[in-house]
Amino acid sequence: MLCSCGCLQKAGGGGKRRSSSSVEDASSSRMSELESNSRPQTTEAASTRTSSLLQLFHRKGPKCFRKPQRPKSPMQAEKTIRAAIFIQKWYRQHQARQEMRKRCNWQIFQNLEYASEQDQAELYKFFHELIKHMPQAAGTGNKSPTSTCTALLEESEALMEEVGDIVSTKVEIPIMKSHIDLLIDVFRKKRSNRLHPKYVVLILREAAKSLKEMPNLSMVSTAVSQQVTVCGDLHGKLDDLLVVLCKNGLPSTSNPYVFNGDFVDRGKKGLEVLLLLLSLYLAFPNAVFLNRGNHEDSVMNARYGFSREVERKYPRNYKRLLRLIDEVYRWLPLGSIINNRVLIVHGGFSDNTDLDLIKSIDRSKYVSILRPPLTEGQPLDKAEWQQIFDIMWSDPQSVPGCIPNTLRGAGVWFGPDTTEKFLERHRLSYMIRSHECKPNGHEFTHDNKVITIFSASNYYALGSNKGAYIRLNNQLVPRFVQYISAASQAKKLTFKQRVGIVESAALKELAVKMREYRDELETEFKKYDPDDKGYITISKWCYVMEKVTKLGLPWRLLREKLAPGTDSKSVNYFRTLDLLDTDVILEAEADGTSVMDALYANKTSLETIFNIIDADKSGEITLDEFEKAIDLLDAHMPGDTSKSEMLEKCRMMDLNGDGKVDLNEFLEAFRLSDIHRKQQQEADIRKRSTTRSSINQPPSDSVTKLANIISKNTLIIEQDIDPMDCESKIIEPTK
């Protein structure tokens, strides 16, 4: 019992401790139970919170986790607002300046292009006035074009061997798709790979024979293909043609094309573009339709570089090739009509344009549209000539009416009312034209009834404009594909560099054009600088620039570029003249072709003038015949040269002194006068480089710097053409 009591006492003592421990164990057990019961709920809540935080992070970004900032004081808020307003103002001014530069450059390019075409249009006006007031000239002239064409196409004269990179690629008739692939591979190479001249002759000859069977207006149908593609001006831009073929596919029965003229001139690959288009036409005659443009003309080619391109590539055979190219031109159709509802011509129309008359014209007479087709025994139909001229050279205008196109010097400006009447008269829905470069490659005018399409991207300079082509579905709803070739080159440049390249190209072309008026500009400047200090006011400088050049440009904006380094109140006009005498401008001028060069290179135009003045068709011009021609020209086309001076020039043409001028003497006089003109220009340059009236110093650093920038920015690095190297996008029609 004691023992048990002792045990109880021990147990009691131990019991007390156990009791305390058991309380702790019980408490611990309850806590464990509570924890175990609550753990799933806590995990679920945490997961929900985590998910919500992640969603918030994805929706609002890391900013929502930043430490809240204290509210800004009114002074701090005002500073922030002022800074934001200042940045916005600076950015808007920067954008406005860039847009102003862009528009100024575009105006320079377009005005120079139109001024250049005015020179060629003057030839047409000259012929028109001669024929108008010398009716006897319109009844006789050259041999029948048909007989000449037949003889040339059947000519079997052996070709001379060319030296250099002549590839071994063979072309056979009929031309197949495999030949097209070979031609593309040859033409796209950076090296000046050339076909053998016999294959060039083969393509030109077969194309002329086939085109001869085409009507004046090609009838195109989408009944089978359900769509058709229309391309505008290419102007020797082979890279753009390859981009179109790469993006849109080769022609086929289900993929027909209409190419709307101006295949050559200005670009360096004009011959390759022409040969590839003709080969496509021969390979797919029912899927390729070629329209004539105003640059499919030997007179234009002599002025804008294509004739020189052919001569450079085939120096031993170029004359024969150019004659064959003329035969292709004369047989090119004048336009196309899709589903009897959409007219496609190169330029436009006038209020006198009659499609029925155009369909009946003998187009083969017009080897050059700028030169009258004088044929033995056939009087010239001036109304017919005007019809062709208007559809090749005209442009749309936003105001009503139909007036002479004074900007180009040829064709007309036709307004929305003229378009409405023309389309209604011929039961057409709308018309597609080309002829004008557009920044985005296309443009709607006249309530969407006139569409302009231009397919040569980078036309004026790298990045200057986009190209485009049209895809019409079976309902003739247009969809545009806009692109720019050589996109990788542009991507390597900053925005500032791209603008600089376009601006430099514009200034270079403008300076070359101003070279024609260089002496006249200096004379006019000196009238407002009696002390010969070299400075005149800004307004006088602008007045002289416009008075002499008549280009209609924003001269105040151009002052800093054409007279660099001058202050804001006056202009050092010597810097303008110095810029025109820099090597980069002189070299660019030498690379170009003057109107006189073009006229002499196109001997046929001079022969036509000779035949018109030779009233009795004796083959010689007498002094009396020349005097009558001068009287007529003076009455209807007055100039600065007096009659006595003109007669004296006629006497100077009489090289053998027999009192008459035959054709050889007439042509030789032009050649000698052109040589003298160039020699005089070189002498003037040498004289100006050594002396300068009262200022005898080299060009300023600012002029030299600008010339170097122009030279660097307009340097062209050639490489193989990659049609995949482009950026393009599809523009759906607006609803």
Characteristics:
alpha/beta, single chain, six-stranded mixed beta sheet, Recoverin, domain 1, Purple Acid Phosphatase, chain A, domain 2, 735 residues, disordered N terminus
Task: Explain this structure.
With 735 residues, this protein is of the alpha/beta class. Among the domains are: 113-485, Metallo-dependent phosphatases (Purple Acid Phosphatase, chain A, domain 2, 4-Layer Sandwich), CATH 3.60.21.10; 595-682, EF-hand (Recoverin, domain 1), CATH 1.10.238. Helix content is 53%, strand content 10%. The strands form five sheets. Strands 1-5-6-10-12-11 form a six-stranded mixed beta sheet. Helix 16 (518-527) runs antiparallel to helix 19 (573-580). The relative contact order is 0.10. The model is unreliable at 1-41 and 692-696 (pLDDT under 50). It is an enzyme of class 3 (hydrolase). InterPro entries: Calcineurin-like_PHP, EF-hand-dom_pair, EF_Hand_1_Ca_BS, EF_hand_dom, Metallo-depent_PP-like, PPP_phosphatase, Ser/Thr-Pase_EF-hand_contain, Ser/Thr-sp_prot-phosphatase. GO terms for molecular function: calcium ion binding; iron ion binding; manganese ion binding; protein serine/threonine phosphatase activity. Keywords: Calcium, Hydrolase, Manganese, Metal-binding, Repeat. Residues 10-51, 680-702 are annotated as: Disordered.
Total helical segments: 26
CATH class division of the domain at 113-485:
Alpha Beta
CATH superfamily of the domain at 113-485: Metallo-dependent phosphatases
Whole-number radius of gyration? Answer: 38 Å
- Average pLDDT, all residues: 80
Family: Belongs to the PPP phosphatase family.
Biased composition (Low complexity): 20-39
Protein name: Serine/threonine-protein phosphatase with EF-hands
Region (Disordered): 10-51, 680-702
